[in-house]
C-alpha cells in the first residue's frame, strides 16, 4: 500500500522533496483512521506533518482508506511523537524552503552577558542616529483615507507616548504607501512633546551596518549598551535582515531586552511578518506579538487627497502656477497605487510647467507624463486571467478558485497562477489570496509546475502562449 502511495507522492511532490521527506518515512502501523510513521528526527516529523499531511492523506484515501490523521514517531530516541494532520489549511510542497524551517529549529544561543562597562564617550546616541528624520514626514502632512486609517490610528496612539499598550507596533505594506512617513511622524511627535526621550530611528540595513561595524571594531559591548538604552526604537524595512543570521540574532536580543524594559518598539516591513521568507520563526513570532497593521494599496479618493495636499506644497515653490480642473482627478485615476510615483509625477509637472511657462492642464500633463502614463496603462487583473483561463478550458471560474483538487481543475488553476505571476505585479501571497485563500507555497508550486511543463508538454506550452496573447491584446 505505502509503496503505491509513495509512487504517487513522488509525482506530486517532485524528486527532491520525495528523496528528502517522503522516502525516509516508514509506515509503522495503519488502523482505521490513523497512519503512523517512523521518522529519523522530530524535526522531520514536524516538517512533513506541516507540509505534506494533506497530500499524504489524500493519496491514501484515493486508495479507499479513510485516514483522518497522521502520526510521526521518532525512531530509536525517546519515542517522542508529533501528531499532525488536523484540519490543516491546504498545504503543498515547498520546493526550496527547507532552509527556512531549519533556521527556525536552530538552537537558541545563550543571551549576551550583562553589560557592565560604561559606554565609550565618543559613542553617543547622536552618532548612532544614522538617518535624520525628514521634516516633511509629519502627521500634519499625512493624508488619511480608508486604506491607511488603521495604521494611522495606531501610529497616533503610539505617538501619544504614555504607557506602552502594544509592543511592537508593526506597520507593513507595499512600497510607497507611507510606512516611513508614519514612523518619522511618530518620532517627530514624541520628541516634540518630550525632548528628553531617546528615540532611535534607523533602517534595518543601518542596524546591520552598525552591528557589523561593532563586531569589526570589537565594540559589541558599546553596541548592546547603546541599543538597550533607547526609550523608543524604530527599525524600518525589517525584511532586509531576513536571511542574515547573526544580524537577526542580535536584533532578536535587542528586541527582547527592550520589551523587557517596557520600551516601545516600532517596526516596518514590506509584507506581513509571517510572509517574510528567511526571517527566523522566533523573530516572526515576536513581531506578531504586538499590533500588526497593514497599509493597503491606495484607492482613488486617497490618491486624490494626497495630490491635493502635495499641490499645496508645490505652490510654495511655484507660487504662480495653477492646476486646471480635472488634472488631479485624471492623475489619481491613472497612476498606480504607489504614492511615490504619484508625487514624482506632480513634481515633474510643476517643474516642466514653470520651465515652459504654461498652465498645468490636460495637454501639458499628457505631454510631460507620457512615459509614466504609458507605464501605468491597462493592467491585467487576476480576475481577468481567471476568467480567460476558465473559458479556455471550458470550466467554471469557481472551479479555478475553489478547493477541488481534480486534475481537470488543478492544471488550469496552475496555468492561471502562472499567468498571474507573469502578467501582474501581484506577489505570491496576494495571488494565493485570490485563489480561494491558498498559501503562497501552493502558488509557487503551481508556477514552477507550469514552468517545467512548458518545456516538455507542447499542449501546455501552446495553451499558455495563446492565453498570454489574448490577455495582452
Ligand atoms: P514607504 O516607506 O511605505 O515605502 P514612504 O513613507 O516613503 O513609503 O512614502 C512615499 C512617499 O509618499 C513619501 O513622500 C510620503 O510622504 C508619501 N505618502 C505616502 N502615503 C502618504 C499619505 N497617506 N499622505 C501623504 N503622503 C504620503
Ligand atoms: Mg520606507
Major sheet attributes: 5 strands, parallel
Total beta strands = 9
Rg of Cα set: 27 Å
Strand portion, in percent? 5-15%
Keywords: ATP-binding, Cytoplasm, DNA replication, DNA-binding, Lipid-binding, Nucleotide-binding
Subunit structure: Oligomerizes as a right-handed, spiral filament on DNA at oriC.
Protein name: Chromosomal replication initiator protein DnaA
GO biological process, one term: regulation of DNA replication
Report on this model:
- There is one protein chain.
- By secondary structure, this protein is α/β, with parallel strands linked by helices.
- The chain folds into 4 domains: 92 residues, DnaA, N-terminal domain (GMP Synthetase, Chain A, domain 3); 164 residues, P-loop containing nucleotide triphosphate hydrolases (Rossmann fold), CATH 3.40.50; 76 residues, Helicase, Ruva Protein, domain 3 (Orthogonal Bundle), CATH 1.10.8.60; 91 residues, Orthogonal Bundle (Chromosomal Replication Initiator Protein Dnaa, Chain: A).
- It is 54% helix and 10% strand.
- A 5-stranded parallel sheet has the order 6-7-8-5-9, sandwiched between helices. The chain has a 4-stranded mixed sheet with strand order 1-2-3-4, covered by helices on one side.
- Helix 10 links the parallel strand 7 and strand 8.
- Helix 8 runs antiparallel to helix 9 and helix 17 runs antiparallel to helix 19.
- The longest helix is centred in the first third of the chain and has 21 residues.
- About 11% of the residues have low confidence.
- It binds adenosine-5'-diphosphate and magnesium ion.
- Magnesium ion binds next to helix 7.
- The site of adenosine-5'-diphosphate (ADP) has 16 residues, from helix 7 and helix 14.
Amino acid at each position: 500500500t505505502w509503496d503505491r502511495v509513495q509512487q504517487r507522492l513522488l509525482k506530486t511532490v517532485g524528486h527532491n522533496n520525495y528523496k528528502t521527506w517522503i522516502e525516509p518515512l516508514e509506515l509503522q502501523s495503519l488502523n482505521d483512521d490513523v497512519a503512523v510513521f517512523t521518522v529519523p528526527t522530530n524535526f522531520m516529523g514536524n516538517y512533513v506533518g506541516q507540509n505534506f499531511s494533506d497530500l499524504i492523506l489524500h493519496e491514501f484515501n484515493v486508495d479507499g482508506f479513510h485516514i483522518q490523521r497522521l502520526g510521526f514517531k521518532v525512531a530509536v530516541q525517546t519515542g517522542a511523537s508529533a501528531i499532525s494532520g488536523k484540519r490543516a489549511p491546504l498545504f503543498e510542497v515547498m520546493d526550496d524552503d527547507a532552509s527556512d524551517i531549519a533556521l527556525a529549529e536552530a538552537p537558541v544561543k545563550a543571551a549576551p552577558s550583562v553589560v557592565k562597562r560604561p559606554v565609550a564617550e565618543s559613542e553617543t546616541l547622536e552618532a548612532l542616529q544614522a538617518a535624520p528624520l525628514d521634516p516633511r514626514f509629519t502627521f500634519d502632512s499625512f493624508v488619511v483615507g480608508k486604506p491607511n486609517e488603521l495604521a494611522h490610528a495606531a501610529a497616533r496612539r503610539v505617538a501619544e507616548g504614555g504607557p506602552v499598550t502594544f509592543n511592537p507596533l508593526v506597520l507593513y505594506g507595499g512600497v510607497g504607501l507611507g510606512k516611513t512617513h508614519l514612523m518619522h511622524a511618530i518620532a517627530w511627535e514624541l520628541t516634540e512633546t518630550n525632548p528628553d526621550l531617546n528615540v532611535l530611528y534607523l533602517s534595518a540595513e543601518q542596524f546591520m551596518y552598525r552591528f557589523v561595524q561593532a563586531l569589526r571594531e570589537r565594540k559589541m559591548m558599546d553596541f548592546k549598551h547603546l541599543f538597550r538604552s533607547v526609550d523608543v526604537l524604530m527599525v524600518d524595512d525589517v525584511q532586509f535582515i531576513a536571511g542574515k543570521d547573526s544580524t537577526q540574532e542580535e536584533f532578536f536580543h535587542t528586541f527582547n531586552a527592550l520589551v523587557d524594559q517596557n520600551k516601545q518598539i516600532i517596526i516596518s516591513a514590506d509584507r506581513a511578518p509571517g510572509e517574510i521568507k528567511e526571517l527566523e520563526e522566533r523573530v516572526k513570532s515576536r513581531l506578531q506579538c504586538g499590533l500588526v497593521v497593514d497599509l493597503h494599496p491606495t484607492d482613488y479618493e486617497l490618491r486624490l487627497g494626497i495630490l491635493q495636499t502635495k499641490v499645496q506644497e508645490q505652490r510654495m515653490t511655484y507660487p504662480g502656477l495653477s492646476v486646471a480642473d480635472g488634472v488631479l482627478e485624471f492623475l489619481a485615476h491613472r497612476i498606480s497605487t504607489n504614492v511615490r510615483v504619484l508625487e514624482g509625477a506632480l513634481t515633474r509637472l510643476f517643474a516642466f510647467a514653470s520651465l515652459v511657462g504654461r498652465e498645468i492642464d490636460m495637454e501639458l500633463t499628457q505631454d510631460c507624463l507620457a512615459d509614466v502614463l504609458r507605464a501605468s496603462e491597462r493592467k491585467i487583473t487576476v480576475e481577468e486571467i481567471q476568467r480567460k483561463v476558465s473559458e479556455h478550458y471550458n470550466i467554471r471560474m469557481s472551479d479555478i478558485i475553489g478547493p477541488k483538487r481534480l486534475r481537470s481543475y488543478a492544471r488550469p488553476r496552475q496555468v492561471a497562477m502562472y499567468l498571474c505571476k507573469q502578467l501582474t505585479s501581484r506577489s505570491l501571497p496576494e495571488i494565493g489570496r485570490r485563489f480561494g485563500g491558498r498559501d503562497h507555497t501552493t502558488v509557487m508550486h503551481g508556477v514552477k509546475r507550469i514552468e517545467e511543463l512548458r518545456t516538455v508538454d507542447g499542449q501546455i506550452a501552446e495553451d499558455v502562449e495563446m492565453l498570454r496573447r489574448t490577455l495582452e491584446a
